[in-house]
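Give me the 3D structure for Serine protease.
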Amino acid sequence: MKKSSAVLSGIAALALSAGFAPAAQAIDNPGALITGGHEATESYEWMASLQRADSHSCGASLIDAQWVLTAAHCVVDTAPADLGLRIGSPTWNSGGTEAGVSEVVVHPDYETKSPNGDIALLKLDKAVPQTPIELAGSSGEAATPSRIIGWGVTCPVRGCGQPPEQLQELDTNVAPDSACTLSSIDAATEICTSSNELLANACFGDSGGPQLEGTPGDWKLTGVTSRLGSPVPVCGTAPSVYTDATAYADWISATIS
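Predicted structure for Serine protease (257 residues):
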């Protein structure tokens, strides 16, 4: 977890979760997706597509044989029976292992400090065979290389298209907290995440998906996609904000055990 002080601006941020209606129109609570990235170059067997009505809604990460980690805004006030997951496939609509959800656990801070505490755990209705990803010991300091992955529209405006079938990835880096002040970032529990590519970052559809640090084949989970880093509703115009999953390690451990 980064040690810099929190910077709060009071300007509302835009959540990045995604459900898609039939006519290429995103519904009110869409998930974050990646714009400016490219198709995944390796296998991420712990990556999950969180779905509603058989459509991709948000990303999630398998962290235990029967638990996935996602964003609170993807599942708050949602009944477990309305959710499903596809785990371990590079396509959100085929392959991998399908599972239902038996329990939704939203971090208590999300109800009282929203958008802070934008993290949730989902218990699967069965154990799955995929190998979970390991949570990092802490998130990196500014300039640390990272990677984000997810499904969703690759254009930068809400409702501009349907999610691609193939998982997308983008190499990113941890940005100084000052680069995300327009989204009221809390440096103790959130990560400001930037990209060197023009108009490239998380976008509507990737919410709940992971931020990774490490190297190909040896990634550790550090962040959970939360929201845009500025009030401008166009992806890639500013860094994105990720919930620092490592700051909630004790809560995660206590919940799944």
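The two ends are 22 Å apart (CA to CA). Let me know if you want a second pass.
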